[in-house]
Design a protein that fits this description.
The structure holds two protein chains of two kinds.
Chain A lengths: L5 H6 L7 H4 L1 H8 L2 H22 L1 H4 L8 E2 L2 E2 L21 H37 L1 H16 L2 H13 L5 H32 L2 H8 L4 H13 L3 H21 L12 H13 L4 H28 L6 H6 L1 H8 L7 H9 L1
Helix pairs in contact in A: 4-6, 4-14, 6-7, 6-9, 6-11, 6-12, 6-14, 7-9, 8-9, 9-11, 9-12, 10-11, 12-13, 12-14, 12-17, 13-14
Chain B lengths: L23 H11 L1 H17 L4 H6 L5 H11 L5 H13 L13 H36 L4 H15 L2 H15 L11 H8 L8 H8 L2 H38 L2 H8 L4 H8 L1 H30 L4 H10 L3 H29 L6
Helix pairs in contact in B: 1-16, 2-5, 2-16, 6-7, 6-11, 6-14, 6-16, 7-11, 8-11, 8-14, 10-11, 11-14, 14-15, 14-16, 15-16
The chains are: A mainly alpha, B mainly alpha.
Chain lengths: 347, 361
């Protein structure tokens, strides 16, 4: 592992910068140029719309996600888009637009729970395993690799059967989906943090901390963890988008959340499958677009962060401007860095 | 499958330490081969424990439908009332002799289900990989050539869209456009009933429809099979195509900055020739390494694609067994897929090691 790659990146902004300038995403936003900035901004805007939709779902959606009738009578099934139902109604007689809006809330909740769980467990395992090493490390690596190599959707199916028996209420369903995603993604955080920990463990400042008599937990959390979190925003964004896709996949296979408990895009697409054959497009198109857009937004942010963290992929103008610093780093990495491998594998 | 390699000696065969570099190809292959066993062992154990933690499969399938005493009798007959640890070791023994149990709903050996439907999934994965190669590699080179200019941005958005679109949504859109509106291609299935019947009469059919249709020697049958394969192949293939595109782009850009490409550039080789001839081949090596993980993703995606297109493969069967709560079948298929994934990863790693000496640490 080369240690030189990290330093020039940190050296690019010559001053330390303000508090805002050092925040993860904002720093990259200022660092980016041209197309890269365009991609990052597009991603941030889409993601912001997604989050705002989730927060203000009760205000935006004209009906509740499980509403079948209003004052003027039942909505009717498979009604084409009209003034009352701008995206039509589903085969079950729900308003498509309302369910698309409410679906954002479900997706965000699942992401938050899944990512928080997997970050904490993954980081803890990675730190301990990487720093302490020994047989525990070896066993964890083999287990992590085994889970990592397995189709994540299948594992999520098995877990959702175990957690909820397949079908469940709002929170039961959300937790089932989130926990199944968690277990699948722990190995990713674990791998990255472990690799970073092993690299940092050999740094002189860790040696000196040991010499000064710092305790192992103190070194692990204060010296190693603080420096190992560099790649976390990237994995965080990539995992969030995968969480949406896994949730949708579970819903599509009938392991999602019941329509009366919450709106879930994958479930709606499953119900729309037979509509498509008879030419009914609105029940499939809108929930599908909602998935695509939310994943696209988050992925654009993650991709841009990843590119900006890699000197070989950062915008060319930037490379020219800092030719001295970057040319030194672009040669000594013949194989793709850990982040890249992870990023490619993640999709 | 050999029974001599007990999975319990797993921790001793963990990846070699980097400091023992230069062990050579033989040593690498041996270690890599031995690593298959702990992988399979861990996955099979995980699936077994998870599935058994919710109770026995018979209650899951029949609970509420049968009176309690009949249910108990069934559970006893199947041996599910014994301690879990006994069942576990019995299951492990069965797995290592290639017996994955019988399905509850239609009482067929899981291995037979795999042989019957595995061919269909294999065929779908093959089409998907072809689509991925045809779309991903040239476009990735193009993106690298136009780096940071408009076509690059467009292609990168395309790659992200490939990833961001769930295969079932892509499938439904393709179906809507090409089957329902334009009526160019069939809506679902692997072939028309007439072709399927004709292929049933073949003396030694493979289950891979393309091969069977060629064996029939009937051009109409081949066309029929291929026309059914187009949409599922594209839907699943685009998922991997996006990955290939990004990988080829990143690696071609990386190789374009190396000394030997600089040397060629200084001799006046044109930039497009540099991409096509010089930077292209080394950039393909990482593709071989990711194919291993792509196989896992393709298998996961196949479950969704097969459900979307009623493609009667393993994924379609799995979805069916899930719906009927036949957890013995689910456990068996998932465990078998674990074996397939472990084996393909091994093969891919061997190929990568043969091609690229840097891998044999």
């Amino acid at each position: 592992m080369t240690t030189t790659t990290a330093e020039p990146i940190a050296a690019v902004p010559p001053t330390k910068g303000t508090f805002w300038g050092r925040l993860p995403v904002l720093k990259q936003l200022r660092q980016s140029v041209g197309l890269q900035r365009g991609m990052l901004v597009t991603g941030l805007v889409i993601t912001a719309i997604f989050v705002l939709t989730a927060i203000f779902a009760p205000v935006i959606a004209p009906y509740s996600f499980a509403q079948l009738r209003d004052a003027s009578g039942p909505f009717g099934a498979q009604q084409p888009p009209s003034a009352a139902h701008i995206m039509g109604t589903t085969v079950g007689g729900y308003d498509v637009f309302s369910r698309v809006i409410w679906g954002a809330q479900t997706a965000i909740l699942v992401i938050i729970i899944a990512v928080i769980f997997s970050i904490f467990i993954g980081i803890a395992l990675g730190l301990v395993s990487g720093y302490i090493g020994g047989w525990l490390d070896r066993v964890l690596v083999v287990i992590g690799d085994a889970i990592y190599a397995f189709p994540s959707l299948l594992l999520a199916i098995v877990l959702s059967i175990v957690i909820s028996g397949g079908q469940s209420s709002l929170w039961g369903g959300i937790f089932a989906a989130a926990l199944s995603i968690t277990v699948v993604y722990i190995p990713q955080y674990y791998r990255v943090i472990r690799a970073e920990t092993i690299r940092i463990k050999a740094e002189p400042y860790v040696e000196s901390a040991k010499m000064l008599g710092a305790s192992t937990p103190r070194i692990m959390f204060r010296h190693v963890l603080r420096n190992a979190t560099r790649t976390l925003p990237i994995i965080f964004t990539l995992n969030s988008s995968e969480a949406i896709l896994t949730l949708a996949g579970l819903g599509f296979l009938g392991f999602g959340i019941e329509p009366t408990a919450a709106a879930e895009w994958g479930y709606d697409l499953n119900k729309a499958l037979s509509d498509v054959t008879s030419g009914i497009w609105w029940t499939a198109l809108y929930p599908g677009l909602a998935i695509v857009l939310s994943v696209l937004g988050i992925t654009l942010v993650g991709e841009s962060l990843n590119d900006l963290a890699d000197p070989r992929l950062r915008g060319r103008k930037r490379v020219k401007a800092k030719a001295g610093a970057v040319s030194a780093t672009s040669v000594d990495t013949p194989l793709p860095s850990d982040v890249e491998i992870l990023e490619e594998n993640a999709s | 499958m050999t029974t001599s390699t007990l999975p319990t000696d797993a921790p001793s065969v963990v990846a070699p330490k980097p400091k023992s570099a230069g062990g050579g190809l033989g040593r690498y292959l041996l270690v890599r081969f031995l690593l298959i066993f702990p992988t399979i062992f861990i996955l099979v154990t995980l699936v077994f424990l998870l599935m058994r933690s919710i109770g026995d499969p018979i209650t899951a399938a029949q609970g509420g439908k049968l009176p309690a005493d009949q249910l108990q009798a069934l559970i006893h007959a199947a041996g599910y009332d014994r301690p879990v640890i006994v069942q576990y070791f019995e299951y492990l023994g069965q797995v290592f002799t290639g017996n994955f149990g019988n399905t509850l709903s239609d009482n067929r050996p899981v291995t037979e289900v795999l042989i019957t439907y595995g061919a269909a999934t294999l065929e779908l994965a093959f089409y998907a990989l072809i689509v991925a190669f045809i779309v991903g590699i040239p476009l990735g080179m193009l993106a690298a050539y136009f780096r940071d200019r408009f076509p690059d941005a467009f292609l990168r958005i395309f790659a992200i869209l490939c990833y961001a679109t769930p295969v079932f949504f892509a499938g439904m859109l393709l179906k809507l456009i090409f089957s329902v509106w334009l009526q160019w291609l069939p809506v679902a299935g692997r072939a028309t009933t007439r072709t399927e019947l004709a292929m049933q009469s073949l003396p030694n059919k493979t289950g891979i429809y393309l091969i069977d249709a060629i064996a029939l020697g009937n051009p109409a049958a081949i066309g029929d099979v291929l026309s059914h394969a187009v949409l599922p192949g594209i839907a699943l293939g685009l998922l991997t195509a996006g990955v290939f595109l990004r990988l080829v782009r990143t690696n071609v850009i990386g190789t374009l900055g190396t000394d030997y490409v600089d040397a060629a550039r200084s001799r006046g080789v044109s930039e497009s020739r540099l991409v096509r001839k010089h930077a292209y081949k080394p950039a393909l090596i990482p593709i071989i390494t990711v194919i291993g993980l792509q196989i896992a993703i393709l298998l996961g995606g196949a479950v969704l694609t097969e459900t979307t297109f009623e493609w009667k493969g393993l994924g379609f069967q799995l979805a069916g067994y899930l719906a009927s709560r036949d957890f013995v079948a689910v456990q068996g298929i998932v465990a078998l897929l674990a074996v397939i994934v472990a084996l393909t990863n091994f093969i891919v790693d061997v190929i990568a090691a043969l091609i690229d000496p840097r891998v044999r640490y």
